[in-house]
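Today's session is about reading a structure prediction critically. Students often jump straight to the picture, but the first step is always the sequence itself: look for stretches that repeat, for charged clusters, for runs of hydrophobic residues. Only then move on to the predicted structure, which in these notes is written as discrete structure tokens rather than atom positions. Here is the chain we will use throughout the hour.
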Amino acid sequence: QKQLVESGGGSVQPGGSLRLSCTASGFGLDVYAVGWFRQGSGADRERVACISSHEGATDYRNFVKGRFTISRDNAKNTLYLQMNSLKPDDTAVYSCAVVGTSWRGQGTQVTVSS
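Below is the predicted structure for this chain, in token form.
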């Protein structure tokens, strides 16, 4: 059974940092392009960052460039999202997904508030 489980969300003040993790089971993350997505309250789901299979090329949306870093540990079959300089607008449920498929996790809540 293919499964993705996120962790690491929480509440932080503006300017703070969090690191999200997404652990896969039932398949290897390294052979797929995978990414992080988010959905704020009343908003559409949007892509945040992606990383390609094998070469590990990364792509970021403009609103997180320079602040977020996506990475992958193939030995742990885990995807990460390091989020720095967090803003209130980053508040959302963050989930990981395999690009081009319906495989995605349930998500983890990130709240940025003073």
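Discussion point for the tutorial: The longest strand covers residues 18-25.
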